[in-house]
Amino acid sequence: MTKFKYIIIGGSAGSFRIVTDILDNLPKNFPYTLILILHRLKHLKNGFIEALSAKTKLPVTEPFDKEPILEKHIYIAPANYHLYIEPDKTFALSAEEPVNHSRPSIDLSLASAGFSLKESLIGIMLSGANKDGAVGLKKIKDNGGLTIVQNPNDSMVRTMPEAAIQETNPQKILTSQEIIDFIINLK
After folding, report:
1. Ramachandran assignment for 131, one of left (phi > 0), alpha (psi -120 to 50 degrees), beta (any other)
2. Rounded (5°) CA angle 121-151-55
3. What span, in angstroms and rounded, lies between the C-alpha atoms of 172 and 182?
4. Nearest 5°: phi and psi at 12?
5. Whether the Cβ atoms of residue 60 and residue 102 lie closer than 8 Å to each other
6. Domain for residue 1, yes or no?
7. Mean pLDDT of successive 10-residue segments in the chain (187 residues)?
8. Structural domain of residue 180, as residue ranges?
9. How many domains does the chain have?
10. Is 101 a member of any domain?
11. Distance of CA 134 to CAs 53, 105, 141, 147, 162, Å?
12. Do the domain assignments include residue 23?
């Protein structure tokens, strides 16, 4: 049995398709918690959860502040809030200033997840147009988690994967399909 219990995925421009492909391929008995930190328009509050929920049988929600992290659940960072993962395995929301021009900041979420969840965490960086997430992914690796980056040649926008590779030297660099296969075959 794997030591992993949590998967956190960061992405921006060009990542929505792979995220929906991942969700579409998850078995209904998928035993891991999936946390999505995706850059999205802060003024659009409706439709995103519904679009993701249509791709999976697992529950998809935006967590509330101090909400406990549940198994077999998919969480998405709320629009215009930073999402932190606390050591007591709860979420914390913050409206502090954007980081890397983004709120939610992928860096903040990944760094707090790495600190709190340590070796039980897999961090994945997908396509995106800025460097948000590179430092956070390194924090996951530094705390014993597994790091995966989408192959820049396979991503719609290379900037985010290239920054993550340079900063982190991840354990795996995979194509979209290889990321999906890795997640659904995780044991």
Report:
1. alpha
2. 65
3. 10
4. -140, -135
5. no
6. no
7. 89 94 94 94 70 92 96 94 97 92 94 98 96 97 98 96 97 98 93
8. 6-184
9. 1
10. yes
11. 28, 11, 11, 11, 9
12. yes
Give 75's strand partners: 35, 61
The predicted pLDDT at position 187 comes to 79
DSSP string across 120-176: GEEEEE---SS-TTHHHHHHHHHTT-EEEEE-GGGSSS-HHHHHHHHHH--SEEE-H
Catalytic residues: 12, 39, 132
Task: Return the SS3 of 43.
Answer: coil
Give the CA distances from residue 123 to residues 6, 51, 60, 113, 152, in Å, rounded to whole numbers and listed in that order: 9, 23, 19, 9, 16
Residue 67 placed within a domain: yes
CB 163 within 8 A of CB 170: no
To which H or E segment does residue 23 belong? Answer: helix 16-25
71 near 89, Cβ under 8 Å?
Answer: no
Q: What is the CATH number of the domain that holds 48?
A: 3.40.50.180
| pLDDT for position 41 | 66
Which pLDDT value is given to residue 88?
97
Question: Is 49 exposed, middle or buried, given 0-12, 13-18 or 19+ CB atoms closer than 10 A?
Answer: middle
